[in-house]
Fold:
Amino acid sequence: MKCQKVIEETWEILRLLGINERRLRLKWISASEGAAFAEEIHNFVQLLKTLGEKPEYTIEN
Structure:
């Protein structure tokens, strides 16, 4: 799937920048799975809180 490929490429860029790739998540949830969606968002927010603020980074030319 194209979306999965884009996510994997973005994870690689995040790693190169020193940003934890867990800050980006791809999860397939059907529109009829509202409770699953809410739980996933809640869990992701909790993960982001444990990871803290994004690290400082610089890109050198």
Summary: The chain has a mean pLDDT of 87.
